[in-house]
Amino acid sequence: MGPNEWRRHMALRVGVIGGGQLARMMIAPAVELGIDLRVLAEDEGMSAALAATAVGDYRDLDTVRAFAAEVDVITFDHEHVPQDVLQALVAEGVAVRPGPDALQFAQDKLVMRARLAELGVPQPDWAAVRTADELQEFLDAHAGAAVVKTPRGGYDGKGVRVVRAGAEAQDWFDGLGEGDALLAEELVPFVRELAQQIARRPGGEMIAYPVVETVQRDGVCAEVIAPAPAAAERLIEVAESIGRTIAEGLGVTGMLAVELFETDDERILVNELAMRPHNSGHWSQDGAVTGQFEQHLRAVADLPLGSTAPRAPWSVMVNILGGPAEGSLEDRFAAAMAEHPGAKIHTYGKAPRPGRKVGHVNVADGDLDDAVYVARAAAAHFA
Ligand code: ADP
User: Fold this and answer.
1) Ligand 1 pocket test: which of 156, 160, 260, 278 has the largest number of ligand atoms within 8 Å of its C-beta?
2) Backbone angles phi and psi of 322, in degrees to 5
3) 348-to-25, 82, 312, 336 alpha-carbon distances in Å
4) Is there a contact between 51 and 73 (Cβ–Cβ < 8 Å)?
5) Per-residue confidence band for 351, with pLDDT thresholds at 50, 70 and 90
6) Mutate to test the pocket of ligand 1, among 147, 156, 224 (most ligand atoms within 8 A of CB)
7) Is the pLDDT of residue 8 over 60?
8) Which residue, among 234, 229, 227, 259, has the nearest Cα to 246 in the 3D structure?
9) C-alpha to C-alpha distance for 344 and 321, rounded to whole angstroms
10) What element of type H or E holds 73?
11) Residues whose CB is less than 8 angstroms from the CB of residue 35 and which lie 6 or more positions away in sequence, other chains included
12) What residues contact residue 219 under an 8 Å CB cut-off, 6+ apart?
């Protein structure tokens, strides 16, 4: 049987919209599960180009429709596919997971805040603000400090600004369209940030990962520790129950990541959501029985979910950001591998630019300090 004939015998074809590293990291588990993974990439030569790849504009209905015709289920590497495109696919009978009704809450932070309020999920105080005066009113009611966010299209801290006067967001107000608003949030005095991962099948079956600690630098995720160190039993339970409430309440299919703030009085508040594998879950590739990329595929393909049990007491993930280091990326990878054979080094096939995520290191170990040391030392080869 040649490869094309074999492909016809495979049960499931999953189409991923978006060709970044998240789609790329679904490829290996897809191969293992016997899933035929196809990617609709924005450009030639993207991270996920190792899979069968079409290149096209995900905002164009005809392009997405033609891609969808070749697969059994559509899922995502990012949340930017417009609602009208997704709604049209669903109306034509395409299985879209997560569906547009769920995805809207990961596409728009104002829509998310309103829905989480309805669900009674703990979150920062917030308001929709349309003018600098409205923002000033919010500031006056919140000790003079707030975080202002553009509701759509932000990532890695872009579209997030701490302000102490309404006029500090004037440029964003000037750019607002008719009827649009910004999101104002109280500046949460958090002691650390956490993330809760949960997978959900179309029929409602769910499985949670242990809550993890995430460390951001300059608005970008730098490190993750799984499970979150010194987390009280109650906190672990509350994080999982928030994850379940959101996955169920929003009708999520696939992986859900809930970013959380932990306050000094041990409350946890929801920051934001992602309905796909997420940087805070990369540790699970090497630290859990079922990694998040495999789990996402299982969930969207409606296969039984895998165990989320840890493979070691501690897992540490350190991101590799493109930097000014001398020498080729290949040489640095080889040096990191030679010095740290226990570290799992993941590369995204992206050209290194300062601050750009080009890979990450996972270390699973019985000792947290050792895991942190090795993961940082391996990642430092790229600094
Ligand atoms: P992005 O969509 O760019 O990831 P987030 O909404 O996650 O943006 O915000 C980025 C970072 O800004 C968070 O990880 C957190 O460190 C900080 N931040 C966001 N919202 C608040 C808030 N209400 N209070 C305090 N810090 C915040």
Assistant:
1) 160
2) -60, 135
3) 8, 26, 25, 16
4) no
5) confident
6) 147
7) no
8) 259
9) 16
10) strand 73-76
11) 10, 12, 13, 14, 297, 301
12) 156, 157, 158, 160
Q: Using an 8 Å Cβ cutoff, are 299 and 73 in contact?
A: no
Of 124-138, 155-169, 170-184, 360-374, least confident by mean pLDDT is: 155-169
pLDDT, residue 326, reads 67
Between 151 and 327, the higher pLDDT residue: 151
Ligand 1, pocket residues at CB < 6 Å? 124, 147, 149, 154-160, 185, 187-188, 193, 216, 219, 259, 271-272
Residue nearest to atom 13 of ligand 1 (CA): 219
Share of the chain above pLDDT 70, in %: 96
Residue 11 pLDDT level (bands cut at 50, 70, 90): low
Return the pLDDT at 3: 54
* Count of Cβ atoms closer than 10 Å to residue 66 Cβ: 13
The Å distance, Cα 141 to ligand 1 centre, comes to 20
With 0-12 / 13-18 / 19 or more C-beta atoms within 10 angstroms meaning exposed / middle / buried, residue 327 is exposed
Tokens at residue 240, please? Answer: 């999982």
pLDDT tens-place string over residues 283-296: 999 999 999 999 99
Token code pair at residue 148: 């202002």
CA 157 to ligand 1 centroid distance, Å: 7
> Hey, is 344 helix, strand or coil?
strand
pLDDT digits (tens, 9 = 90+) for 233-247: 999 999 999 999 999
28, exposed or middle or buried, with CB in 10 Å at 0-12, 13-18, 19+? Answer: middle
